[in-house]
Amino acid sequence: MPYNKKSELPDSVRDNLPSHAQDIFKEAYNSAWQEYKDADDRNGDDSREEVAFKVAWSAVKQKYHKNEKGNWVKN
Q: Does pTM top 0.85 for this prediction?
């Protein structure tokens, strides 16, 4: 299900990502949720939610990475 605001994001996202990265995650997730609504548009047996999560994390990793302390920081 799409997220309307950052406070609705899963704890694993809110508790670990900086605010800007949460914005990226939310927007990418919502976009993928719409783009992959039909099962025929998805590869394999992944659910719509699984695909949206993969796309969102991939989008975050374009701009952020985990540092040596395990914190997400801008590239």
A: yes
